[in-house]
Request: fold
Amino acid sequence: MIPATDWKQFARSLGLVVEHLPLPQGIPAVLAGQSLLLVSNMLSASLVTLAAWHEIGHLALHAGDMESWSALPGGSALLARFEREAWQFALVFPSWDIEDILAALEAIHSFGILPGTLIHALARCTYEEVP
Ligand SMILES: [Zn+2]
Reply:
C-alpha cells in the first residue's frame, strides 16, 4: 500500500515532473501532456493530494489524449467514464488517512468543483464493496 501522502514520490516514479504554482481558481491539479503534473500551491494539501492522485489515475488508466478520445462517437460518455475511473483510482489505489480523505472531500464539496463524477465514483466504490 502506498500512503496517499507519498503521491509526489509515486508521480516521480512514473516519470512525471511535479510543479507547484498558482493554478486558476477551482483547479487543484492538472496533467500537462504525459510528463508534467501541475499542482496548485494555493489550496489545502489534502485537496491537492486527492486531485494529484486523480490525475495520476488518468495517466495510469487512460492512454492517449483526451481530445482525440472525446472526438470519437460516444466520446463524451467515454470521458465521463474516464473521470469516474480516475476518481475511483484516487480513492482506492493509495492508502488514505481517514482525516486526510475527509478533509479533501470536504474541500471539494465546499469548492463546488468536480461535480457528479466524484459522487458516482464514491457510490460505485461503496456498492462494489457490499457483498
Ligand atoms: Zn479527470
Remarks:
- Residues 54, 58, 83, 86 surround zinc ion (CB under 6 Å).
- The mean pLDDT is 83.
- The first helix runs from residue 7 to 13.
- The radius of gyration is 14 Å.
